[in-house]
Design brief:
By secondary structure, the protein is mainly beta. 0% of the residues lie in helices and 20% in strands. The protein is built from no helices and five strands. It has strands spanning 21-25, 30-33, 38-40, 45-46, 52-53. The protein has a five-stranded antiparallel sheet, with no helix packed on it. The relative contact order is 0.15.
Amino acid sequence: MCCHWPTCPTADHPNRDAARIVAAHPEQGWSLLCNGTVLFDDTGELLPGGEIIPPHRTPRRHDDAPGALHERDSSGSPV
């Protein structure tokens, strides 16, 4: 399916999400990649053969969360 150079990763490659977007529908929460993978906003995927890849978001660290309160030691430095 891919006509880019260098070619994008195939749908069976672990790095399949790196393929280029050929159709984006952010209002519906999904994009079609040039390797035939449908990538959903929640990081779930639907592969061309019908296989479903569940969402695989990495959990945010507490201190990376927006507006998170950071603990400080007695000198006032972040812990």
